[in-house]
Design goal:
6-stranded antiparallel beta sheet; two-stranded antiparallel ribbon
Length: 237
């Protein structure tokens, strides 16, 4: 396990607004791996690559248990026949920004004062959704879709050798700048609404199709991964 060292964030971070949201203060510190060769310095920048949210996400599925109940009402006079279930986002609220801890921290390039340099090699960072509790696959699928993650619940970003960075200015007190890529996390509270659809019959005569709220699924303390890039100013030459 990597030992973590906390550094003050020297520059302010501007976050894209998400709706709906709850008030949350951006943090003033970030954690940087102590194993990074240039970690003893000042964190001078922090960029966030967030995929946003999708409040229109929907998953349609068949609940096997509800479907099995249909056979027990086949000969009833006034009955409902289960058809399907739809899972949608009732609310997607951010509770806290940049809660960490950072994972998959990768060194991209180090640049001397007054110089420029390209990323040393193509480098990819990736991270996965982190949940508290157990949920069925349809609820999990809706959470991933509403957070704009891959079906696997992952996110990734690649830096290529065509990307150029600049070192500290000539008059800087620092001698070098190191750029890192990593995965950080925002904390969300999500409500998934399950709608169940039925056909109503009177005997064998179809009456109407109805949709009712089957259940509310509360998926709280969900950590959404996002790629980030930060730089560290160092006295090291």
């Amino acid at each position: 396990m990597k030992k973590m060292v906390t550094f003050a964030l020297a520059t302010s971070v501007i976050f894209a607004s998400l709706a709906p949201t709850v008030a949350a203060e951006p943090p003033t510190t970030i954690e940087v791996s102590a194993e990074a060769p240039a970690s003893l310095g000042e964190v001078s920048s922090y960029k966030k690559f967030d995929s946003g949210i999708n409040l229109n996400a929907r998953i349609t599925a068949i609940d096997r248990e509800k479907l099995a109940q249909n056979k027990y009402t086949a000969n009833a006079g006034d009955r409902r026949v289960y058809i399907k279930s739809d899972y949608v986002a009732g609310s997607v609220k951010i509770a806290a920004y940049n809660v960490g801890p950072m994972t998959d921290q990768q060194h991209l390039v180090s640049i001397a004062k007054g110089k420029e340099a390209y990323v040393e090699k193509n480098t990819t960072v990736s991270g996965s959704l982190k949940l508290s509790g157990s949920y069925n696959q349809n609820v999990l699928g809706l959470v991933k879709a509403s957070l704009n993650l891959e079906a696997s619940g992952t996110v990734s970003k690649t830096w290529t050798t065509s990307q150029k960075y600049f070192g500290p200015k000539e008059d800087s007190i620092y001698n070098s700048r190191s750029i890192y890529g990593a995965i950080d996390y925002d904390l969300y509270n999500i409500t998934v609404v399950q709608y169940d659809t039925y056909d109503e019959y009177l005997g064998n005569q179809f009456q109407q199709r109805i949709t009712t709220v089957g259940k509310y699924h509360y998926v709280n303390n969900t950590k959404k991964p996002f790629p980030t890039e930060y730089s560290i100013e160092s006295f090291k030459k």
